[in-house]
Amino acid sequence: MLLFLSALLGVFGLEKASPVDTQQLRALQCPPCERIHCSSRRALKLQCKGGVTTGVCGCCPVCAKTEGETCGGTWDYLGKCDEGLVCVFQDSAAAKPDAERKGICKAVKYKKPSPAGFVKSPLSETKLTGDTFELYCDVVGNPTPEIQWWYSEINRADSFRQLWDGARKRRVSISTAYGINAVSVLGVSHLTLDDSGTYECRASNDPRRNDLHQNPATTWIRAQATITVLQSEWSVRQILIVVRGSF
Fold it and tell me: Domains of the chain by range and CATH?
């Protein structure tokens, strides 16, 4: 009976986060919480600077550590950080076992989620056959949005199809970089008259964006540019030379 009471007293001491030997903490065995009689009013009497958490055994209420205070240690005997804070360990893992490391409570830098939005949209251009064009698309959002490129023939808005890097006999190139922003460049070289059309940059960070049951119009934002390809004078001359040479 005395041994059992001693064990309970030891647990109460740990719940109050009193200094204890690391070897004792490694051998910590907590009885069920219903056998540790914590006062229901104890949390009201703590007068904590921050919030309230639980002690080593996860039963009795103790003050959570606030920003700048020491935390961590074996079984978190040095304390647990308040909500919105994390225990940042300063000791290297090689110097001490992970369970014995001490840390400091620091605020979590949390960036609020935000929908995708265009910083730079592709611009319409008129080109000649044989030329090259590049379209730029710069998008922000949290998390970083995904970018896709789509194409439709002129006056065929219902014929959009996705473009891929290396398409059109490797005349299409798509370079995309993801960081704080998502930036993508679409290039098409050695233009032909068939390259005229509407090119569309689509962006989304909606988690449902690739769900086939969702309407893409509600999960993707879009920016369009019209590319008009005209027959170059040099090409016309070449055609005339070929035609005349055939007679």
Answer: 33-107 (4.10.40.20), 114-233 (2.60.40.10)
